[in-house]
């Protein structure tokens, strides 16, 4: 344990997929004796206090209060310059631009205030999509790290593209291939969408800013992955800008561990109320029988996608639990709705909920496979739970992760997508293949092997645990 008080500042976005990895890393650092201040844009406070859906909502410790004793997590909020009602998922361009101007000023003022209150920070850990935080850290003389919240493989693709673009073919042809160190051959259609010509420029600008700051302002790149999962790409990056795999950042119970902090402290952020009745529903189902479907906290399916997925599920005649999150009240996104007769026709087989505690669902013995958009948090949770996947990727890192899951790890199947959606026949084919096809047993076996590997890395003395120790030692200059 650290012998004296050491404080880290962590900065992230008030988005579920960004907050939760930071919170889980914060908890691991606290278990090592580090005091954490977690700063985020204040829409998080608005959502949590208004919805009352998160454990944080009942237990806020704000930065205006005294530092927690013993080490713990303190929340701090700053304005991003946008109203609480503004849909940050829908207009990401405006959100990022507002954060790097108005948000940056407000965060800088917050840090100044905290330092004036004798909060001396030894390190700032920033969200990689907020690279401007490194400038504020440098102005205050604080060493800086980033928590890469996607796969090592994705980080490697971005790094090489931004540093060595000549390695890549024309990105206008989806069937062209690129070979990068430590990665399988990737076709353009497998690459993360942020580097493609069709992607909004804001993403390219943000990633370029981050990679440029690796040369002088961001010393450590912590990655939410583990060496045994992505060994080849971790080794390939060692001579470029070393990465520190400190994952999987999931809840301790998913790894078979005891909670590292009391139940009254921050654990997970859910921006919607979870329908816990689904656990009782799963309790009544046979082992490995249920198809679990969720497309994460951001993705909105079109009507065609919804229709085909619903028909494929119905025709498979398998039990299913489907999460269809509510759309924001003021959202202009035209998401699809379930076919009118679907719920009545499948009431004996399926359950549709607006949200659930995904880690608990994936751990349930009744769940046999996971139809997923291949977001990295969901991917790690399925890996740690030992659940095979049906990969149905959309944008950003998801096509690359789908390739990784199916062709490298071989723990799932991938739907064939044409014109943005998979046919109902394709959905049904994948369900039948993953649940009873000739490769189903092998897929399940490999998924369970990865589950065991994941349990070992975060335990005391495991590879990720050792890397976290190394990171703290490099900042404090003291072994512990």
TrEMBL record:
Keyword Glycosyltransferase appears in the UniProt entry: yes
Catalyzed reactions: an anthocyanidin + UDP-alpha-D-glucose + H(+) = an anthocyanidin 3-O-beta-D-glucoside + UDP
UniProt keyword list: Glycosyltransferase, Transferase
A single cellular component GO annotation: cytoplasm
Entry EC no(s): 2.4.1.-
Pathway the protein contributes to: Pigment biosynthesis; anthocyanin biosynthesis
Record-level GO BP terms: anthocyanin-containing compound biosynthetic process
SUPFAM superfamilies: UDP-Glycosyltransferase/glycogen phosphorylase (SSF53756)
Family stated for the protein in its record: Belongs to the UDP-glycosyltransferase family.
Name recorded for this polypeptide: Glycosyltransferase
Origin organism lineage: Eukaryota, Viridiplantae, Streptophyta, Embryophyta, Tracheophyta
